[in-house]
UniProtKB/TrEMBL annotation:
Name this protein carries in UniProt: Cytochrome P450
The protein's required cofactors: heme
CDD domains, per database record: CYP503A1-like
GO molecular function, one term: heme binding
Residues at which heme binds: 455
Family assignment from sequence similarity: Belongs to the cytochrome P450 family.
Organism: Lentinula aciculospora
Keywords of this entry: Heme, Iron, Metal-binding, Monooxygenase, Oxidoreductase
Amino acid sequence: MNNVITLQLLSFFIVGLAWAAWVLLPKLQRWRSHAAMLNAIPTVGPTGFLSGCLGTYRFFTNAREILQEGYEKHPNRIFKIALIDRWAIIATGHTMVEDIMKASDDQLNIMEATAETLQVEYTLSKEVVIHPYHVSIVRTPMTRNIGARFAEVRDEIVSAFADHIPAQDDWVKIPVYKASFQIVGRTANRFFVGLPLCRDPDWLDLNTNFAVEVFISAMIINLFPAFLKPIAGRVLTRMPSSMKRATKHLAPIIEERLARESEYGSKDWPGKPNDLISWLLDEAKNEQRTVSDLVTRILAIEVAAIHTTLPSKSTAFCNALYQLAAHPEVIIPMREEVEATVEEFGWTKEAVGKMRKLDSFMKETLRFSGGGGLVNTRKVIQDFTFSDGTIVPAGTTIGMAAYMHHHDEAQYDDPYTFDAFRFYKMRNREGESLKHQSISPGLDYITFGNGRHACPGRFFAVYEIKSLIAHILMSYDVKLEKDGVVPPYEWHGPSMDPSSTGEVLFKARR
């Protein structure tokens, strides 16, 4: 009897051992393979037992120095930086940009990377990643309607400047970081939701602060290890209160639109507004045509419009103001261009598109002071092999060091000098008149990403900012208190932002 029991126990043990080997050995092999791939990638910064904690702290406080060190030590390669529970992998050089650009979504996925970077599950909603239909709204109807809605955008630009930077005969100091968010927020919302909501103080305050809170909350949540992120996410985000505020403004509008559809039995009805809410309702499926889902989508697009992982319109506009005031020699040539173009074509999308000197100034601003540390971020879905043979394991995240890329002598002549008409001169070369526009991504210009996943909102962003600068050129004189001295940039982790305390002096144009 005892022998039978012993044999049964032995059988169970053997079966259990075989099952464990069958389940665990592949995982062990996978872990060893994963570790071997990572070990083959050079490391910048700490590598010891406490490397995760030290690396996270250093990356949060000295990202520029770390990225610059890696960029210079490992040109045209990839390197890694230890964070608290993962590795940040950075790619450098043209070849790496092209490899990332050509990769399929099954290999390198931008949506998964965005969800992780912004901690979307806690700061917005999983739905915006699982069913990202709002991205096609930005890519198609929003971009297609820039011309049709341009007169309204222009009207809001004039009104917003009159309210926030009234033209006066004497010089007035303006804290331009705050003013940039206010003016860009109003102008964008005139395009998105129209009057009167675009001027509602509570709606604008919600949009501006919510966008900032999303990025700050995500940055802090990412400092925690994976098992603590759910707790940090619940404690550190204000999504429920923001949704409540947004719903108060948007629910009556959405419900009225749905009622009109029901009344006419069609999505097309007389007097239907041509705005973001209508575009979303046209695209949303049945289960997505709810107030809650639509409010979430609108907030997500507002976040992207006012402050995104790429240079936001607000920070890009603020940087442009600093550079315009720091380089008075470019004002007259650009002002003459704006005057001549508007005289011929009026204040239209077509006119703004023909302002080549202004476009060059805008692109140089984005090259010189936009993009920050990391762009083109992708989540590695399956082990990915770069053209130099380096393999990046699945589960990691990879990005491009934008500031370093744009200040590389291999990419640009005299890269640390701000040359407002750098790209204007390039476009004057034979056969290059359509190249080098501020909306055109390239291997040397990665501000808006590259390939099929280049930022879909860049068209509206560039037209809006160029229109804002054109209005300043026509209406104001500007200068800095210290001639030519741009207030110092602020690095927050890998993000490079314009000074939040700097001022520009404005007065009515003579």
